Amino acid sequence: MSEVQTLMDMGFPRERVEYALEVTSNKGVEPAMEWLLAHVDDPIPSRQGAGESPSPGAQPAAAVDSSAGAASSSTSGSGETSAPVAKSLKCDECGKVLRDHTEVEYHAAKTGHTKFSESEEEKKALTEEEKKAQLALIEEKLKQKRIEREEREKTEALQREKNRIKSGKDMTEAKRRMEELEMKKIVEQRKREKDEEKAARDRVRAQIEADKAARKAREQKELGNTEPAPSVSSTTVSSPPSGVKSPPRDYTETRIQVRLQDGSTLQETFNVKEQLSAVRVFIQMKTGIESPFSLMTTFPRKLFAEDDYEKPLEVLGLVPSAVITMTKTPA
């Protein structure tokens, strides 16, 4: 519905409605209605421009009206009957009297009525009481519309605030969940790493204990097989010649002393069949050092290579005892 039709539906004439919209710069129904209510009795200026001049030969309106009146009088005086003049339009379906075709079109669009006819009945102007009642009704409608608009704006603002709060809470909750998941992953990763380190240490300890148990079992077996030698009289056995050497002794254990980088020492007994890597594992277990390091002997000076750690201690000449120095791995 247009603004003109809305104001006309409230009872204002079309000319005053169009003028009110023009005065209020077409800002809407409410400014135009306020102007109409404030200027109910004010006359509307003529639409004809002030600079326009009547065309040559044109007669004044008063002269035309007087001429028309004189002609009408003469016609009526001569006894001729004049035709009825239509002063309005009437809806045949509801009987409402309409001023012009604009009101007819608006009434048809509003009610859906289609049957109209010309009428000699003139649409009467509103009385003062009717004007006041209509103005009161219009003011009430305008007040109600303002209240509805304010309530609607409050509801929309409240809904926007609720949506904003809900969106902020959702984002905060999602962020918190992400942080919890990340923290859980970090904790699980650290726990897994600690478990792996503990399992590796347990394996090394078990290997060392197994080696010790095997070495102890071999020692007990060797002691059980050894028998005491019979006593020999000095008169029957003569001492060996001084030029004959005794056979080399068969060692089963070796004592290894390790000099650490901070100057402290470690000492442990190993089986001669154990590899040099067992000495390195022993150092790691005692010191907790995880960074790579190398081993060497000072006399004779020798830096053990990677393949030396797979060789037995007796092959490397570290029997029956040896001093090993811990050093940094060369770059």
TrEMBL record:
Location of the UBA domain: 1-39
UBX domain segment(s): 249-326
Region annotation (Disordered) ranges: 40-89, 145-254
One Gene Ontology molecular-function label: K48-linked polyubiquitin modification-dependent protein binding
Entry-linked SUPFAM superfamilies: UBA-like, Ubiquitin-like
A single GO cellular-component term on record: nucleus
Sequence ranges of Low complexity compositional bias: 58-83, 226-246
Gene Ontology biological process terms from the UniProt entry: negative regulation of proteasomal ubiquitin-dependent protein catabolic process; negative regulation of protein K48-linked deubiquitination; negative regulation of protein ubiquitination
Subcellular location: Cytoplasm
Oxidoreductase recorded as keyword: no
Keyword flag Transferase: no
The entry's keywords: Coiled coil, Cytoplasm
Biased composition (Basic and acidic residues): 145-224
Domain of life: Eukaryota
UniProt xrefs under InterPro entries: UBA, UBA-like_sf, UBA_UBXN1, Ubiquitin-like_domsf, UBX_dom, Znf-C2H2_OTU1-like_C, Znf_C2H2_type
Protein known as: UBX domain-containing protein 1
Protein's organism: Drosophila yakuba
Lineage: Eukaryota, Metazoa, Ecdysozoa, Arthropoda, Hexapoda
